[in-house]
Write a structure and sequence with these properties.
The complex is a heterodimer of chains A (129) and B (104). With 129 residues, chain A is of the alpha+beta class. Chain A has three helices and five strands; from the N terminus they run αβββββαα. Helix content of chain A is 29%, strand content 29%. Chain A has a five-stranded antiparallel β-sheet with strand order 4-3-2-1-5. By secondary structure, chain B is of the alpha+beta class. Chain B has a five-stranded antiparallel β-sheet with strand order 4-3-2-1-5, with no helix packed on it. The chains are: A alpha+beta (129), B alpha+beta (104). Strand 5 of chain A pairs antiparallel with strand 4 of chain B, so a sheet runs across the interface.
């Protein structure tokens, strides 16, 4: 809705992922993580995608069973409920990363909303808003 | 009410302990003891948590307890495995207990 259509100045609801720490896992997308599952299977790989329920896909993954058996996998999907731990690089500062990603997501959604409201041709109008 | 009184009551509202999760909020940035399903115990510094009890802990020590029964003597051997991790994200559905730090 454009600013003229908004009648009630209700505060915008935060996106669903910001209501829990799943936003931290989503912020780790693109980095290498080790997901330890509830059946003691560990998978190390690059986190490709994480949805709001914490279901994850990893690429270039190595799956290690508790017996020590290793399997190389191009892509693996892990159900959210199967996750016990998510190991990440100790160089990452969780609060700083969440803040940075939150800004990016907000800017992205704002840019998208502007383009949707004003259209790609009316960029001048969007900048003035 | 003056603006100062309003601000003071707002700060009091934020610090109020109303529900059990608020007790975990008081333990932020302190060492906590967490019990997980599967006879696992974790001690670490609580950096973040949410309503599902997903947590981010730092300077973590994990202790896994397992009981083995000797084939010959049939006695129970309690074995513990320890692991130290600098940073850990725990999914909340494994968490059974969160204990605030011991005050020494």
């Amino acid at each position: 809705p454009t600013s003229s259509e908004r009648t009630s100045r209700a505060p915008p609801m935060p996106p669903r992922n910001e209501k829990s720490l799943v936003c931290f896992i989503q912020a780790l997308v693109g980095t290498t993580v080790v997901i330890e599952c509830r059946d003691d299977v560990a998978v190390r790989g690059q986190l490709e995608f994480c949805d709001d329920d914490m279901h994850c896909t990893l690429t270039s993954a190595i799956r290690v069973t508790p017996g020590g058996e290793k399997t190389k996998l191009d892509r693996i999907f892990i159900r959210a409920r199967m996750i016990r731990y998510v190991h990440f690089a100790p160089s990452i500062d969780p609060s700083a990363l969440i803040e940075t990603k939150r800004q990016e997501w907000f800017e992205g959604s704002r840019h998208y909303a502007k383009a949707a409201a004003f259209g790609p041709k009316n960029e001048a109008k969007a900048i003035l808003d | 009410t003056t603006r100062l009184e309003q601000r003071m009551s707002a700060v009091e509202e934020e610090a109020a302990v109303r529900e059990p999760l608020d007790l975990i909020r008081l333990a932020l940035d302190e060492k906590v003891y967490v019990k997980l399903r599967g006879d696992r115990e974790i001690r670490g510094r609580l950096h973040a948590y949410d309503q599902h009890l997903n947590m981010i802990l730092g300077d973590v020590e994990e202790v896994i307890t397992s009981v083995e029964i000797d084939d010959e003597t049939y006695e129970e051997i309690i074995k513990t495995t320890k692991r130290a991790v600098p940073y850990l994200f725990i999914r909340g559905d494994s968490v059974t207990l969160v204990s605030p730090p011991l005050r020494s």
